[in-house]
Amino acid sequence: MAAKSGKNGLLEKWRIDEKPVKIDKWDGAAVKNSLDDAAKKVLLEKYGYAENFNLVDGRLFICTEKSIFLVAVQRDPAGMDPDHIWQLSSSLKRFDDQYTLRVAFIDGRTRQSRELEFTKSVGTFFDENGTLVMDHYEKNVSKLHDALAMEKKTK
């Protein structure tokens, strides 16, 4: 595993056994799962949030209904304020190429929530061989995260 610093540090983590993530691009479930897993890795590894299984377990029905696949906690560095919550959810309809990723932020102090999303063709994120183009996908996920994080700082 490469270190987190450096231009290729984060991208190296996306490889399993030194091979890029490759799927059958005609398998909708595999496409959605690989994009979901990659978005999850961005929040957990790039931003250093901790996955909160208790929230997922406690709200399993709600999470399933809303297609939430990650509930992550952003801890207050000083330990004074309550933790912020980040949620990832997605959708990809059967026989459709339009993938929607939703990032939700719940402020720990105010309990107010905000969310942003993008909807793009899955072809945008995979090459012709079915290999996930992680640097391009990571930029899209980070753009949503950073816009929500910026709103948080300005309020």
Shape: elongated
Strand residue content = 15-25%
Q: Which whole number gives the mean pLDDT? A: 82
The number of helical runs is: 5
Distance between the termini: 38 Å
Order of strands in the sheet with most strands: 1-2-3-4-5
Overall tally of structural domains: 1
Tell me the total number of β-strands: 5
Q: How helix-rich are the residues, as a percent range? A: 25-40%
Largest sheet, strands/sense/barrel: 5 strands, antiparallel
Low-confidence region ranges: 1-12, 14-18
> Helices and strands: which structural class?
alpha+beta
Q: What value does the Rg take, in angstroms?
A: 16 Å
Taken in chain order, the helices and strands follow as HHEHHEEEEH
Subcellular location: Endoplasmic reticulum membrane
Keywords: Endoplasmic reticulum, Membrane, Transmembrane, Transmembrane helix
Protein name: Signal peptidase complex subunit 2
GO molecular function: peptidase activity
Task: Walk me through what this model shows.
- α2 (28-46) crosses α5 (134-154).
- The chain has one domain (21-154).
- The chain has five helices and five strands, in the order ααβααββββα.
- 37% of the residues lie in helices and 23% in strands.
- Strands 1-2-3-4-5 form a five-stranded antiparallel β-sheet.
- The model is unreliable at 1-12 and 14-18 (pLDDT under 50).
